[in-house]
Specification:
Layout lengths: L25 E2 L11 H8 L13 H11 L6 E4 L1 H13 L6 E2 L8 H7 L4 E2 L20 E5 L11 H9 L6 E4 L20 E6 L12 E4 L2 H11 L9 H12 L1 H24 L2 E2 L7 E6 L4 H10 L2 E2 L12 E4 L3 H17 L3
Parallel strand pairs: 1-11, 3-4, 3-5, 5-6, 6-7
Antiparallel strand pairs: 2-8, 7-8, 9-10, 10-12
Helix pairs in contact: 1-7, 2-7, 3-6, 8-10
Bound molecules: 4'-deoxy-4'-aminopyridoxal-5'-phosphate.
The site of 4'-deoxy-4'-aminopyridoxal-5'-phosphate has 12 residues, from α3.
């Protein structure tokens, strides 16, 4: 080993879902929205100006728009380059104690990557056999709590009362609620922010606002938490969001009709698709997200995953304990989900299932 090699930080990175080069595939593997963003976004991009200058490091225009939209003060909003950026900053800012940070064994698989990166001790209480979070597991002393609600990849949403109970038992550490999928039917914890000064709610534009490609995320919390986050962010990179991104995000927030209409479309598609999948022998909890997490009563998930891929249909498969016979299938357009159903019917007949 060369001397300098000993100084290299070794990490096991997060592995995102595949982004195939072929644009003809039916892509149901990374929970993207199948519809384009608001037409206002295109107008903005066609007229982007002033790229010569640095963007506003405080991102006031977008924070104001989000504050108004959700009924908060601008000082209670933090923005970042996707919610991954917001969450990474939050782990770095809030989890500096000796006690373990708690998050479920089955949840967004970036949490343990950040914990390892920042040398944060953590424990992962097991979801129960129905893949529900056992709230009593979060009643012990800890260095922080992270709950994705709805959870991923299970798609199961917990109630506001459930989150409130976790907060009532955790007054001494920061509780992060990751609401990446909340707009598709979850219950938001935003109403608890005023009462719980240790609650940070994290949101993204990537799913319900069809803007995964622009990388926009935000957090809402009391202003002391937001100020602490800002100090960390300004100690790494002042200009994380581009001027164009800021304008696009504001345009998206202002076009509420488009947002509501397209979220509803996905929910409607999810409901008929779920019904048909159950009739074909899949079982899964009701989804509060833009995906389902399903297993078949006879066919093997890895085999279905591989067979679907050869037909140009990408879904997500995690070769991990407890979930290695499940598929996470993003809700696309009606046409895309119809193609998936046609594929699976053929597959099950051929496989004799
Ligand atoms: N949280 C959860 C639970 C997610 O599934 C994702 C998407 N991979 C993210 C956060 C991050 O999304 P983004 O960085 O695109 O906002």
């Amino acid at each position: 080993m060369k001397a300098w090699e000993a100084n290299i930080r070794k990490v096991t990175p997060y592995v995102p879902g595949e982004q195939p080069k072929d644009s003809n595939v039916i892509k149901l593997n990374t929970n993207e929205n199948p519809y384009p963003p608001s037409p206002k976004v295109k107008e903005i991009l066609a007229n982007v100006d002033n790229l010569r200058k640095y963007p506003d490091p405080e991102v006031v225009k977008l924070r104001e728009a989000l504050a108004k939209f959700h009924g908060f003060d601008t000082s209670e909003v933090f923005v970042g380059v996707g919610s991954d950026d917001v969450l990474a900053n939050a782990f770095l800012t809030f989890f500096n104690g000796d006690k373990p940070v708690l998050f479920p064994d089955i949840t967004y698989s970036f949490y343990d990557v950040w914990a390892n990166l920042y040398n944060i001790p953590y424990e992962q209480p097991a979801l129960n056999d129905d893949f529900r979070i056992v709230k009593e597991d979060y009643y012990k002393p800890n260095g922080g709590v992270v709950i994705a609600n709805p959870n991923a990849p299970t798609a199961i949403g917990e109630s506001v009362d459930f989150i409130k109970d976790i907060l009532d038992h955790n007054q001494e550490s920061v509780v992060i609620v990751d609401e990446a999928y909340v707009d598709f039917g979850g219950e938001t914890a935003l109403c608890l922010v005023k009462d719980y000064e240790n609650l940070l709610v994290v949101r993204t534009f990537s799913k319900s606002r069809s803007l995964a490609g622009m990388r926009i995320g935000y957090a809402i919390a009391n202003k002391a938490l937001i100020a602490a986050l800002n100090d960390i962010k300004q100690s790494i990179n002042s200009y994380t969001m581009t001027s164009a991104t800021i304008e696009v995000a504001v345009a998206s927030v202002l076009d509420n009709d488009y947002f509501n209409e397209h979220v509803k479309k996905i929910i409607d598609t999810r409901e008929w698709f779920s019904k048909e999948m159950r009739e074909l022998g899949f079982s899964f909890a009701d989804s509060s997200a833009n995906f389902i997490f399903a297993k078949h009563n006879k066919a093997n998930a890895a085999d279905i995953f591989n067979a679907a891929k050869t037909k140009g249909i990408y879904v997500r498969y995690f070769n991990k304990p407890r979930i290695n016979n499940y598929l996470r299938i993003t809700i696309g357009t009606d046409e895309e989900m119809r193609s998936f159903i046609d594929f699976i019917k053929d597959y099950l007949t051929t496989a004799g299932c």
